[in-house]
Amino acid sequence: MPATTPKAAPKNIESKLAKLGLRTDMDLVLHLPMRYEDETRIVSIREACTRGGQTWQVEGVVTKNEISYKPRRQLQVTIADDGGELLLRFMNFYGSQVKQLAEGTRVRARGEVRHGFFGAEIVHPNYKVINQGAPLPTSLTPVYPSGEGLSQTVLRRAIADAMKRVDWQDTVPQGVRAKMRLADFEPSIKLLHYPPVDVDEHELTERTHPAWVRMKFDELLAQQLSLKRAQRARREKGAPMLRAVGALSEAFLNQLPFKLTGAQQRVVREIRADLREGYPMQRLLQGDVGSGKTVVAALAAAQAIDSGYQAALMAPTEILAEQHFRKIAAWMEPLGVKVAWLTGSLKKKEKTAAVELVESGQAQLVIGTHALIQDTVQFAKLGLVIVDEQHRFGVGQRLQLRNKGSDNLVPHQLMMSATPIPRTLAMTYYADLEVSVIDELPPGRSPIVTRAVDQNRRDEVIERVHAAALEGRQVYWVCPLIEESEALQLQTATETYETLAAALPDLKVGLVHGRLKPAEKQVVMDAFAAGEVHVLVATTVIEVGVDVPNASLMVIEHAERFGLSQLHQLRGRVGRGSAASVCLLLYQSPLGHVAKQRLMTMRETTDGFEIARRDLEIRGPGEFLGARQSGQAMLRFANLETDQWIVEQARDVAQHLLQEEHAENVATVDAHLARWLGGREEFLKV
């Protein structure tokens, strides 16, 4: 940046630093460079010009300074040394720069040397006005992540000042550092801010240098300590002991028309053991699409009801909540259980009646959407909360439902997800949860063949749909997700519906989308389930929970617009019967790199965990975690894909430090959390 950048008032700088989350000296010290520039050596202008196309630093005296107006207004400054001359070109410049770069001024400039229309030049170089013989830096120059109105000069100065004031005490015990061969904290930080010239640049940019390993370890250790402390705090709270696995649970199992898989039985045992404890269960139930999570949830609810408590099941969308309600009520109500239904779209009279049933305790199981967490809903004796597709709810929403317990007891919580979470991610972000996995599909499920088909072959696909319907099979045709506009999404779905209805006059084509009233949606879904509708055109409202065993062909239009987990969820709507199932991914050429990777993954595997692992590679952890992490800083330095070994070590050290609860360890843990989380711990505790 030009040296004349006006100095902002200190208060002004403070507020700009705060926008970057840099409020304390330690925040500044831990604001590490994203890359480095080598300003430690100068090459002659002649050498820089003969080896163009690379970034060089040169020094020379200004021999010419003029403002040109062709092809647009620009400042052209020529500098020269003993062996040659070079043009510095500025498209955006201030009047003060014109004066600053007057003829006769000595300048040190750095940038990519190109051969342009006017000869060798650097466009918009970094430069400094200097005196002859000014010393060169002895370390690489850091380039920091910055924000509006914060120059690198201001950031560098603020960080250097902060480094003079912080407490450099090492918060990782000496024994741990020695055992794990970790570099010390202070020299690691100083090296990362001011790397010596002889540093291994590859290690620095790839973040494999011992100094970077130390930062990653510290960051992961803070996260593990915080989550494990939250887990411990939860265990100190009281929860109802749901000890009875009685008549209802037995009758429920006996009337099921199928036998539980080995994986389901194992998971049921894990949940039953948790529910008997006097502290709140916090268990994540993972299972691939169609693995039978709903029946496991219903068995957990039966245990709560057997023990004299109510259970609540909350789902993110009305269509999913309704599918749970229909399925579970059909199992439970013949056994004498009163199941209440509560959603935002109920008429006032129906809602009031449902709320009264919940409050009086007559409703033993309550199923619904966000409506369950409204202030008007009071439970008589809530013992268990089940949250489906948990990543689609915010921290606050889950907390509200948990707070509806009575007698100062916290209800047990079972969270379900059909989006498998890769092991490293679960270890890192869900270290405060117990995780159960249903890793086996019920018998009789047919394998799904997946093919990617260019949009130009649409007519062939319609032919395929026609042939499948004539053989008695049913078909889903899913329309693309259009983020920008619900109206546009509706238009696409309606147009597709009209095209298919015209192309297949002998078939019954149905349409469901987000704008339909729940009752209208249900009429179409029921007709499809009954086999009266051959082809169902739908937006992603059918993403989860729909179960029609006769549907064995799915067409996903503009598949390149969907994420991997969503494609996998949608594909899971077929393959639920014994017929061979096919999923066709219609795409629009040309495909971008990420879209290509996604479609290739879908063709190669139907394993949800493998898909989740690849999704993590493509997208990083952010989107996986959903609103659970709102407010919590993502990992800044550690990379879950490449740093799994550090995650495992940090987890073990955290466990050791928290087990040995003597004063020294408590102080160490407090100091480490204060340094790395600085009061942001509350976001980790839900």
Automatic annotation (TrEMBL):
It catalyses: ATP + H2O = ADP + phosphate + H(+); Couples ATP hydrolysis with the unwinding of duplex DNA by translocating in the 3'-5' direction. GO terms for molecular function: 3'-5' DNA helicase activity; ATP binding; ATP hydrolysis activity; DNA binding. CDD domains: DEXHc_RecG, RecG_wedge_OBF, SF2_C_RecG. Keywords: ATP-binding, DNA damage, DNA recombination, DNA repair, DNA-binding, Helicase, Hydrolase, Isomerase, Nucleotide-binding. The keyword RNA-binding does not apply. Residues 274-438 form the Helicase ATP-binding domain. Its EC number is 5.6.2.4. It is an enzyme of class 5 (isomerase). GO terms for biological process: DNA recombination; DNA repair. Residues 471-617 form the Helicase C-terminal domain. Belongs to the helicase family. RecG subfamily. NCBIfam families: PRK10917.1-1, PRK10917.1-3, PRK10917.1-4, PRK10917.2-2, recG. Plays a critical role in recombination and DNA repair. Helps process Holliday junction intermediates to mature products by catalyzing branch migration. Has replication fork regression activity, unwinds stalled or blocked replication forks to make a HJ that can be resolved. Has a DNA unwinding activity characteristic of a DNA helicase with 3'-5' polarity. This is ATP-dependent DNA helicase RecG. It comes from Massilia horti. The lineage of its organism: Bacteria, Pseudomonadati, Pseudomonadota, Betaproteobacteria, Burkholderiales. The gene is recG.
